[in-house]
């Protein structure tokens, strides 16, 4: 091939890896906006440096953690309540998510069923669990019930969407084969659909329990019961040594739940 | 006793399955099946051959109504099944066993659970959910597993089996339904030649032992000639050959598949 022929050929071909000016413009716009937002919110290096001594004092007052028996008793009660809130909310939330997930799976249900169900799920998903907890505390009063209700809402919203997506990814040939035996819809569900998604459902449930354990330490801050109340009070009273005790315990709890959920998932592979 | 003999006599006089003027178009004006007329009596193996995309699968699926025909009649066991719904449709399906392409076992269920799937059209739904099948069904499942040579595999998960073993389970699942007709849609398409012969042989043997007529869609013409008592050739959505294997000549194959060069 002569050099001339090569240039002629490359002229007719599309350029490899063309420059996308829209995308470059997009990156630039995001970077400019970030700089602008930092300037309006006083997110500056100078402000950060000004905060350092305060942070050092805070950390210094945390150590050593407070292990007074009276404090430990307070924490134990709070932690037990938090764990109960998490387990109850996960259990009820998953129970509600199974039918919602099935009803919103577009490969099993007609559009007039999936649409309303998906709208309900989207509505449940609109707020952060903390905001839902505030609403429940205002609606039904202080205490663990408000926390449980708030986490049921967020668990159902999240898990039912995951369930629906898992169902939408199943192998429909296997489902058709079960349908061809003359099975009713519930029979197809029990033998064609659920076996294919059960392991993933268990995985999602373990994940949600993990997430609820974290969230249940938080709902107490707004009056939804659990360790969050004690944590919030401790920060308000500058009992930073007790704050550290609570934080360490939460870390321990989350680690244990991580180990347990890994083991549970292995069982259901 | 007299009832069964009378039924047997009836089965011999009436065609088990009659397809009249069957048409199917998934998209309007693009018919997949065009004016199919066929009769099947209550015995033997019928092989349907023809190129891919010619409507063989659709034809089988119209019979057990996984696909709803656009027009025409399908008379099975004396009743028109083209319009049945709900419970009637489930009763139709349970009386027709189907062996699927690529096995279509529920991979995460055990072998015996896959077999018991064949009883879902019969047992109450609570039994299915609680896995409490009648002991007669479980006994039958074990017998069938022995018959297909997988007696030791009852509690294995289906995804641990080889292709040939899976298709044996597929056959056993279809027979669990105690069907009056067995449909097989390309049952050997993903199997090696030796296993393909074994699978068709097994299906033919079990079906003839239980007097169940079989209709097989199959790509392998040699295999069709070897086992079938009747061959139906389809091309472009219509039947272009219908007769015994001995009558199937190269000119018919040329008409079914088109072209000549591959026959030489």
List the topology elements.
The complex is a heterodimer of chains A (269) and B (264).
Chain A: H1 3-12, H2 21-40, H3 45-62, H4 69-103, H5 111-125, H6 129-140, H7 144-168, H8 172-179, H9 185-216, H10 227-236, H11 240-267
Helix pairs in contact in A: 3-11, 4-7, 4-9, 4-10, 5-7, 6-7, 7-9, 8-9, 9-11, 10-11
Chain B: H1 2-13, E1 17-24, E2 33-40, E3 45-49, H2 56-63, E4 71-76, E5 79-80, H3 86-94, E6 96-99, H4 111-116, H5 125-129, H6 135-147, H7 163-176, E7 181-185, H8 193-209, E8 214-217, H9 221-227, E9 230-235, E10 238-243, H10 250-257
Parallel strand pairs in B: 3-8, 3-9, 6-7, 7-8
Antiparallel strand pairs in B: 1-2, 1-4, 4-5, 9-10
Helix pairs in contact in B: 6-7, 7-8
Short overview:
With 269 residues, chain A is an all-alpha fold. Chain A has 11 helices and no strands. By secondary structure, chain B is of the alpha/beta class.
Report on this model:
The complex is a heterodimer of chains A (269) and B (264). Helix content of chain A is 79%, strand content 0%. With 269 residues, chain A is mostly helical. In chain A, α10 packs antiparallel against α11. The longest helix of chain A has 35 residues. The radius of gyration of chain A is 27 Å and the shape is globular. The mean pLDDT of chain A is 90. The N and C termini of chain B lie far apart (55 Å). Chain B is globular, with a radius of gyration of 19 Å. Helices cover 38% and strands 20% of the residues of chain B. The mean pLDDT of chain B is 90. In chain B, α6 packs across α7 and α7 packs parallel to α8. Chain B has a six-stranded mixed sheet, sandwiched between helices. With 264 residues, chain B is α/β, with parallel strands linked by helices. The chains are: A mainly alpha (269), B alpha/beta (264).
């Amino acid at each position: 091939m002569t050099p001339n022929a090569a240039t002629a050929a490359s002229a007719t071909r599309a350029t490899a890896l063309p420059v996308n000016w829209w995308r470059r413009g997009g990156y630039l716009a995001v970077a400019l906006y970030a700089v602008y937002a930092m300037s309006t919110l006083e997110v500056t290096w100078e402000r950060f440096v000004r905060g350092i001594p305060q942070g050092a004092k805070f950390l210094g007052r945390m150590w050593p953690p407070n292990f007074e028996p009276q404090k430990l008793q307070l924490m134990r009660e709070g932690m037990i309540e938090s764990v109960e809130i998490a387990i109850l909310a996960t259990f009820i939330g998953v129970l509600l998510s199974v039918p919602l997930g099935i009803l919103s799976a577009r490969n099993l249900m007609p559009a007039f069923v999936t649409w309303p169900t998906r709208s309900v799920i989207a509505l449940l998903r609109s707020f952060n669990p903390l905001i839902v907890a505030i609403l429940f505390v205002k609606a039904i009063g202080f205490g663990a019930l408000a926390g449980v209700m708030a986490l049921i809402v967020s668990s159902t919203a999240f898990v039912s969407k995951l369930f629906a997506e898992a169902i939408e990814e199943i192998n429909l040939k296997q489902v058709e084969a079960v349908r061809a035996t003359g099975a009713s819809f519930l029979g197809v569900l029990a033998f064609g659909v659920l076996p294919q998604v059960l392991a993933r459902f268990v995985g999602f449930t373990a994940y949600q329990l993990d997430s609820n354990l974290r969230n249940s330490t938080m709902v107490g801050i707004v009056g939804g019961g659990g360790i969050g109340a004690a944590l919030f009070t401790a920060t308000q009273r500058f009992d930073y040594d007790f704050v550290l005790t609570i934080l360490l315990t939460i870390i321990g709890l989350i680690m244990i739940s991580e180990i347990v959920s890994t083991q549970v998932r292995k069982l259901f592979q | 006793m007299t009832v069964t003999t009378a039924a047997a006599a009836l089965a011999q006089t009436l065609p088990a399955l009659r397809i009249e003027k069957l048409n199917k178009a998934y998209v309007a004006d693009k018919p997949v099946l065009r004016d199919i007329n066929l009769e099947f009596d209550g015995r033997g193996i019928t092989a349907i051959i023809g190129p891919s995309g010619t409507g063989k699968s659709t034809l089988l699926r119209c019979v057990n109504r996984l696909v709803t025909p656009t027009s025409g009649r399908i008379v099975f066991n004396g009743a028109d099944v083209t319009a049945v719904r709900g419970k009637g449709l489930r009763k139709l399906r349970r009386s027709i066993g189907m062996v699927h392409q690529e096995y279509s076992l529920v991979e995460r269920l055990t072998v015996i659970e896959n077999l018991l799937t064949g009883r879902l059209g019969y047992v109450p739904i609570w039994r299915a959910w609680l896995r409490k099948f009648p002991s007669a069904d479980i006994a039958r499942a074990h017998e069938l597993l022995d018959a297909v040579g997988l007696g030791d595999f009852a509690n294995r998960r289906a995804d641990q089996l080889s292709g040939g073993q899976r298709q044996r389970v597929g056959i056993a699942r279809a027979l669990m339904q105690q069907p009056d007709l067995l449909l097989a849609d390309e049952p050997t398409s993903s199997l090696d030649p030796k296993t393909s012969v074994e699978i068709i042989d097994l299906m033919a043997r079990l079906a003839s032992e239980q007097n169940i007529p079989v209709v097989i869609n199959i790509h392998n013409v040699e295999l069709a000639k070897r086992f079938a008592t009747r061959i139906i050739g389809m091309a472009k959505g219509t039947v272009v050959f219908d007769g015994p294997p001995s009558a199937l000549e190269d000119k018919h194959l040329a008409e079914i598949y088109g072209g000549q060069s591959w026959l030489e």
